[in-house]
Amino acid sequence: MDPKSPDFVVVGGGTVGAAIAYGLARNGLSVMLLDEGDIAHRAARGNFGNIWVQGKGHNNPAYADLTRAAANSWASYANELQAETEIDLHFRRPGAFYLCFTHEDFQKRTAMMRAIDRAASVSSPFEILDGSELRKRLAGVGPSIVGATFSPDDGTANPLHLLRALILAFQRRGGAYRPRCKLLSFRPEGMGYTLETTDGVTAGSRIVLAAGLANKELAAIAGINAPVRPVRGQVLVTEKLAPFLDYGTNFIRQTVEGGCIIGESSEEAGFDDGTTLPILRETARRAAQAFPILKHARVVRSWGALRIMTPDGIPVYEESSQLPGVYAVSVHSGVTLAPFHSSALVEKLIQGRLGGDLAPFSSRRFNVQKA
Amino acid sequence: MFRKLEPSTREVSILVSGQRVEVPANANLACALLAAGVQLTRVSPVSGAPRLPYCMMGVCFDCLATIDGIPNRQTCLESVREGMIVEIQDGKAQYMHEASLGDYE
Known about the structure:
The structure holds two protein chains of two kinds. Chain A is of the alpha/beta class. Among the domains of chain A are: 8-47 and 160-227 and 313-367, 3-Layer(bba) Sandwich (FAD/NAD(P)-binding domain); 229-309, D-Amino Acid Oxidase, Chain A, domain 2 (2-Layer Sandwich), CATH 3.30.9. In chain A, 29% of the residues lie in helices and 25% in strands. Chain A contains nine helices and 19 strands. Chain B has a single domain (12-91), classed as 2Fe-2S iron-sulphur cluster binding domain, sarcosine oxidase, alpha subunit, N-terminal domain (Ubiquitin-like (UB roll), Roll), CATH 3.10.20.440. In chain B, 10% of the residues lie in helices and 30% in strands. Chain B has two helices and seven strands; from the N terminus they run E-E-H-E-E-E-E-E-H. In chain B, strand 3 (42-43) and strand 4 (50-51) form a beta hairpin. The radius of gyration of chain B is 14 Å and the shape is globular. At the A-B interface, loops of A face loops of B.
């Protein structure tokens, strides 16, 4: 292996891979970031942009804690990236409402929030608001909304600014960004690995696989089970509107520029990242039900994007037992967890061990046979 | 600056920023505004810069104006109609006074 080959090759130039690559480079390691290119599925570029805490980690307190700690780090993370790049991430943390359309939704939601709160170690306050309390707190909400849960810990950021900032910060810290470079295979050689890509053969001491949906095949090369599948979301964005929504919500957010991003669908559609009229129509109908003034707003664009979903919706952080120094990271909440990926996860990668408090995220959990 | 390829046989009148303007019947609205010498159809809500129609084919969104009370309409995708009211789109759309807009779902 070439002695000049980098300490780490990070595979995947989306939000997750770029956050890890930036974190490694900031710690003084030599890092190469392989990015497939514009034909990739690019979940990072279809992202809604919520930093979302409430309701995450039901029946999985480790995931609740991971999410809460990451969200608590977001303000300093946004400042740090802005200082590194002069890019404003449009980070805001006014808190968010999860809107309930039926009494049944509201009861289930309330019970779930209480259960998560009892199990989690990192505290995260929340409020349960019935319809009349909600209408006092949130101007413009429609009369048919039954209630909501509110968390002051939820926030938003512009996911495109985030991705751009991460890649720029990575490069400014000396990282080598390789676009149009898809990893095809890798094998151990000497003290490290040889990687075969669409842009030639390269090498590195250790490999972090953060290739989104491609992790399923790539991680298998190292004997890691990363059974991720695409789950499609369809998103609408409206024309720019005068500010009316001061808070986040679970499926509508008003951007700094004024457009409203609206999306909540979740579909099994294979690798088709298109849009369908029935889903867009239902999404728009519910948005106008939540905020009646939106029925006047005109939609200027819509898109589909593919979430990277594990069987239980919980992240995978796994090291290969067959190929030491190969790690797999499979996450669908790349924006929320970005501060974790750039700091605490990076420290563990540098140490070379992903055990300890990351043990609940081992993909070995998928190998346990059901009784 | 703009010259008509053919003389118009019939004209209609529209209101542009409160001024009555005679334009060829069935003309494309963006063309009619440019031909009438309009200097500004909108102000960018992001930068505050003045804008005029640019691509003339529905993709650049630089020709937005308020038409008959509805903000952010693409003038390059509209035909003129007798009595049409066109106003400068100044900044972001305001839907706070729903009652004045009525329902046009």
